[in-house]
Amino acid sequence: MHQAFRTTRQRMRGATMIEFGYTLPLFLLFTLGMLEMARAVYLWNMLSNATYTAARGAALVDATDGAALAAVAQAASLPARGGGMSLGANGADARIAISHLRSDFGLVTSVPACPSQNIVNCNANPNGASCVRFVRAQLCAPGSGAACEPATYKPLFAGKALGWGFTYPSFAAVVPAASLGRQAGNTEICPGP
Questions:
Q1: Phi, psi at residue 54, to the nearest 5°?
Q2: In which order are the strands placed within the sheet that holds 134-140?
Q3: Domains identified in the chain, total number
Q4: What is the Cα–Cα distance from 111 to 95, expressed in whole angstroms?
Q5: Domain TadE-like, which positions (predicted)?
Q6: Could you tell me if 102 and 129 are in contact, meaning their C-beta atoms sit under 8 angstroms apart?
Q7: Are 92 and 77 in contact, with CB atoms under 8 Å apart?
Q8: d(CA 189, CA 54)
């Protein structure tokens, strides 16, 4: 009887390794797929939050101060958050574009020369072409220029080889224009509309 048990045991030697070899690729595929999906959802939420933060900050900055608007967009972007994001490096090359809108959500054709002039313009004609009523921030692909092409998700793992990926929406965030940099008690005189 002892001899029969030994023969069966020798025939089954290595069966565990074969089973492990069959299940390991499936386990890794599932695990890496879950990590990639979690990363995509994480970046989706962070990019949405970044555009809202940029729009909220730009509503408080002078519309003619390009350096301040660029600083707001840079501060709200992904690389600036928390010393960078280890899983967000591939979404970091997208840029945030800030634009000023009229009451009908069309682009302001001529931005007022100073924040005080915007108040004068909006009091004179709230629907006018030079009255900034809203500020919009949206996510654009790097190098897309004024057209603001949508940015694409770049997979961390083998998604490029498999052709897997997607295009982000613009994550456009529109907030009402606040002070646009005007400080209370400031009686600045600026050029006309």
A1: -65, -40
A2: 95-101, 134-140, 173-176
A3: 1
A4: 22
A5: 14-56
A6: yes
A7: yes
A8: 28
Given its phi and psi angles, is residue 190 left (phi above 0), alpha (psi -120 to 50 degrees) or beta?
A: beta
Contact 47, 78 (CB under 8 A): yes
- How far apart (Å, rounded) are the C-alpha atoms in residues 161 and 143? 24
Q: Is 10 inside a domain boundary?
A: no
What is the percentage of the chain residues whose pLDDT exceeds 90?
Answer: 14
The partner residues of 116 in beta bridges, in order of sequence, read: none
Range of the domain at 166: 15-176
Task: Look at residue 163 and tell me if it is in a domain.
Answer: yes
Instruction: Please check whether residue 6 lies inside any domain of the structure.
Output: no
User: Closest by alpha carbon to 99, among 64, 72, 135?
Assistant: 135
Q: How many CB atoms lie within 10 A of CB 51?
A: 25
85 falls within a domain: yes
Asked if residue 91 lies in contact with residue 81, where contact means CB atoms within 8 angstroms, the answer is no
